[in-house]
From TrEMBL:
This is Orf5; putative. The lineage of its organism: Bacteria, Pseudomonadati, Pseudomonadota, Alphaproteobacteria, Hyphomicrobiales. InterPro entries: AB_hydrolase_1, AB_hydrolase_fold, Carboxylesterase_BioH, Epox_hydrolase-like. SUPFAM superfamilies: alpha/beta-Hydrolases. Residues 4-228 form the AB hydrolase-1 domain.
Length: 246
């Protein structure tokens, strides 16, 4: 809710910020089966149905870019438009995880890591990780507390995160060829200097796969655009809202 979410709310938008299954204080629902954008898109779609929102503007950041795209593919009636922020969308190498993370998916090792050393070790590295994801920009003051980032280190969310990353290559390989069929108004916003989700490997080919989408690349910006460029994202949402209303 922090960053762009709070700014959108202050600009008069109704903002609904969902935890993906297994993150924040949300249950995983279905263990390893919940690792795909397709599964999570169904869960999010059911939640929107219960809320009775009607078609919504979906803002998907990083991994959730794949989720927003999947919803536009599977449930287009619920999607008014897409705002994709530094999205992970195009096929990845078959093993995006480092060796230690792949070992962590072995059940005995998973239990040992998540139940014992994951929290203390993760907490010790969290400040440096936070600085690295903002590069080349300076971290936003009080980011760790405002974003509640330490919640990801709990046993359940830590395992969910590894599973989501591990399963993503197959999911993207399946859904990427269909992006050209997405008809809703779409804007893709990326940082020129993003070291985490490199624009030339993700946003650029995604823009070619969705030629009707508008591409916005911010010079010198990194990955954390929802915190470092909220004004730009609010303007893009406002522009999409005006386009939908016409």
């Amino acid at each position: 809710m922090e960053g762009v979410g709070r700014q959108l709310a202050q600009s008069g938008f109704r903002v609904i910020a969902f935890d993906r299954p297994g993150y924040g204080n949300s249950d995983r629902i279905s263990g390893a089966d919940a690792a795909s954008p397709a599964f999570q898109g169904r869960a999010l779609g059911e939640a929107l149905d219960r809320l009775g929102t009607g078609p919504a503007i979906l803002l998907g950041d990083s991994w959730s870019g794949a989720l927003a795209l999947r919803m536009a593919l599977d449930r287009p009636e619920q999607v008014a438009s897409l705002v994709l922020v530094a999205p992970v969308a195009m096929p990845l190498p078959s093993h995006p995880l480092p060796w230690w993370a792949r070992i962590a998916l072995t059940p005995p090792v998973t239990w040992l890591l998540t139940q014992t050393i994951a929290v203390p070790v993760g907490l010790s590295y969290l400040p440096s990780v936070a600085r690295s994801v903002f590069k080349p920009e300076a971290p936003v003051e009080n980011y760790l507390a405002a974003s509640r980032a330490p919640l990801i280190l709990r046993p359940g969310p830590a395992l969910a995160n590894i599973r989501d990353l591990s399963g993503l290559p197959a999911a993207l390989a399946e859904q990427a060829p269909r992006y050209e069929t997405i008809a809703v108004p779409t804007v893709i916003v990326a940082g020129e200097a993003d070291p985490v989700v490199q624009t030339r490997l993700q946003t650029d080919p995604l823009s070619r796969a969705m030629p009707h989408a508008r591409r916005v690349v911010l010079p010198g910006a990194g990955h954390m655009l929802t915190y470092t460029a909220p004004d730009t994202l609010v303007r893009e949402v406002e522009a999409l809202t005006a386009a939908i209303a016409r």
